[in-house]
Design goal:
heterodimer, A: 851 residues, alpha+beta, 4 domains, six-stranded mixed β-barrel, six-stranded mixed beta barrel, 24 helices, 16% strand, elongated, B: 227 residues, alpha/beta, Rossmann fold, six-stranded mixed sheet, four-stranded antiparallel sheet, 7 helices, 27% strand
Amino acid sequence: MKTLVRLGWRDLSRNRRFSLLFIVNLALGLTGFLLTGSFSASLDRHLAAHLKEILTGDLVLQAARPLTERELAVSRTVAGPGSRFSRQVSLYTMIKGGNGSKLAQIVAIDDAYPLYGGFRSSEGLPLNQAAASLQHQQQVLMSRETARSFALAPGDTLTIGQASYAVAALFDRDPGGDFTSLTLAPKIYLGLPHLEDSGLIRFGSRVSHKHFIRLPDTVDGSAIAARLTAALEELAAKAPEIRVSTTMDVNRRMGRVAGYFSSFLGLAAMVSLALAGLAAAFLFREHLRGGLRQIAILLSLGASRSQCLFLAMGQLAALGLAAACVAAVLSWLLLPLFGSLFAGLIPFAPNLALDPSTAALAALIGILGSLLFCLPVSLRILTVRPLVLLQEEIAGDSLSRHDRRRMVAALLPALGFLLLLILHLSHSPLQGLVFTAGLIVLTSLFTLAAALLFRGCRQWSTTSRLTWRIVWRNLYRNRRAATAVFVALATALLLVNLIPQVEKGLAAEIGQPEGMELPDFFLIDIQEEQRQPLARFFQDQEARLSPLAPMVQGRILSINGQPFAHWRQQHQTGDERGLRRSEFNFSSRVQLDASETVVKGPPLPTASWQADADRPFAFSLEQEFSKRLQVGIGDRMVVDIQGIEMEGQIVNLRKVRWNSFQPNFFMLVQPGVLDDAPKTYLASASRVEKTRKDALVQQLTTSFPNISVIDVSGMVAQLVNLAGQLTLSLRFMAGLAMATGLVTVVSIARQEALRREREINLLRVLGASLGRIRILLILEFALLAAAAALAALALSVLCSFGISWLMFDRLWQFQWQSGMFLLLAAILTCSLTALLATDSVIRRKPVALLH
Amino acid sequence: MTAPKNSPLIEVSDLHKAYPLPESGQLTVLNGADFSVKAGDTLAVTGQSGSGKSTLIALLAGLDKPDRGRIRINGADLTAMDEAGLTRFRAAHLGIVFQQFHLLPHLSAEENIRLPLELLGRPCERGEIEALLENVGLTARRTHLPAQLSGGECQRVAIARALAVKPLLLLADEPTGNLDVATGREIVDLLFHLAEQEQMTMLVVTHNRELAERCSRQLQLAQGLLQ
């Protein structure tokens, strides 16, 4: 054992370049995994430590109306003695500040709020006194940034609705948290007793009522939540109107947002790891080729095959462990940078640290990955015959068909290992399988392309020009190594080019949806009597107002005769967004908006539905929403619209382009259904001159103080920024994959040069200059890079189109600039890398040929 | 383990070995070879290139298996052993000297010599290695790597390595084939001196007439038979 360890160590330290390349290559592959793993773990840790502060309670009861005394009494009874309650009412409204009017979220709180956490100043000091004063004085709290945007300072006054409030203090951190950094409007806190003075609570106002509950430490929150849900559902005769949330729900929601990014990045990291595995196998294959003689010597001296296999495996395990250690150091250095990539994606800054369990897993992957990826190569030890020592040359490649089959079969554990890792990172078996299958298909396609290319090289090698003849022949003769370079480069380049292809189309579509006019403003809470004056207002302003869309709140009572609560229990899909609530907005229109199309079923009838008719009215559902509700054409739903029960039948499904920022709804009903219901309206305004935007909003909020105006361009900017942040983090991973791909090129180029040392020497003895030999190498690797880049570009265009078609509603634009840049960069980098990697071999004296 | 003097150490009977040709058919290398070697004898096997000399040494070393026939060394039937058995037998009882030395490049001269003992798990006395180094005249070069040694020195290390386990039989495949005449002569002197000193049986495959003539017996391999 000791002898074998010493032998293994000597071999690795003697072949320093091999050891170094192997470690760097695998370390780069593992770094992505460690970064994403540590990032996820840091997020989880942050969430676990701050869940109660994020929710500001153990439980939250949420409804679109105030809770009745009875409901509150039941809640207090279920929560039990020792529990504490606090109340919050919030709504959106326009606020006039020192420099114009803007939409804000007014959050009215009682004196018990928050039950966990608190307001903190920029110095991190608690603002307890200022928060308490909200209950006694007409004052507000807002963030420093909000104050800046409204041009306000502590002591200044601002008007909310019909009342004026003084700015008490500015905070840097408020209790609770948002689920993404994408926010509709900044929050302004005031005392609950002073909300009524604003006059904002009136019919049609979309108000959210929350009651936070803090339970004694010994009480199980989930059990209380379940009992509360059951008790409140029992109180509500038809359908629950109160949603009960726990810290687990917050964890799930925030985890989903964060998990989406980290699993996406994790999969990108897997590409790096797969490339690293490919390069590792190649490096070890070449290393072992040189080591076959030593294995034969050991066998001739009495070492057993298992000892020789142990020697090779031990070396691989040591290299894998070393790579994991290097990756851990690299990740530790890169984590702050990696964290900054997410600055705009998540609303908090977790304390990023290298996760010990991820590091341990990385070490395991390093060791096991090295062993498994190199298993087909390692098994060659079993075929080495010491008899070769009596021959002049050690024949390395003479494998029988049986040996080859065994080597191919030995690839399966590595593939299984990769699949397991992908499943672990994607958190979704389907996603993982699709990704693995995609990776295998891509690699197979690239291998096929390489095989065709190198077959062509054989034919082209009949050219009379010596340089080209040698280049084509070299590519053909060394087609196995060339295929490995081709596949590694093409896969890395595919990933690199895929990102701009998808990103540009997405950003362009968000900023300027194809065939659509993006509105300047989105108007909500328009009252019935304001319809005509509003139309006139925009006419006077020479701007365009879209048709007003009515909006009525209602509840789904039953689906196909089953109470909605039962239906949602039986039709859990994992995507709870559609089923967690029973209150929805309903609208009606004679003609569909340009941003929506019926994809299944006939259009809604234009004839007005009569309430006394004995047939159900017609429903149109947005197709994604129908999937979440698990309903389809023909299904019947009973709804309660403003106290009146009506039955409708789904007649069609619509596809909505939400990025159009037009008034759109999950549920449209046949004309006539909402006629008698009191309703508010939504609209969008466009063609407003840029220079007049602020003035128009100011005039609009003066004339129509209850109407909320959302600046669409601001939202678009936020979305584009968010997409930009996401692609930045993806680019980081793609860069890592590219770096791994380049290490593959270095490894292979160097090994190839070493293998061809005799040939290079012979060329030099025969009179070829160093320059000519360099040109040969440059041409060979440039051709390889160009072919790999072209194959990658072609497939990335196809893949990006597929991704855009499947995930982003066919939003796709061909980006030839990034493709061309990558093509040139790949050729240049690959040639230079190959030249540098082979320089020392080329420079060796040809006198070696005489030995 | 030592064999009694004059008792047959190697007994080879009806040895056949053929290799398949790339296209079709096969090349017969040994076609019923019979011979025996007494303990303490030195035997030279000569023959033209491709006559099967290396094949014979490979079969005797247990590096390859015959198609037919029997090989007994010190009573042990090599043809009845599996690969693991052959490996154990080779490690314990045989010493092999190759034409191309085949030293491990990253081990020093001393470490190369020590290696077979370590692989066998035998205690490795420092004095024993010292003696071997002294016998081959490399005491001063003990820490040198093979790349830092001349061809003759490498072959001396290889001889010392072959003798480290005190083998019953020393097999040498063209031990002077890669050396100049003077160095070759030195190596031959060394080989015979050590064989005599250790009372060791030696089988040498060689083209070198001088070397062959120093052996107590000579056999020529031709048309698959030993004459």
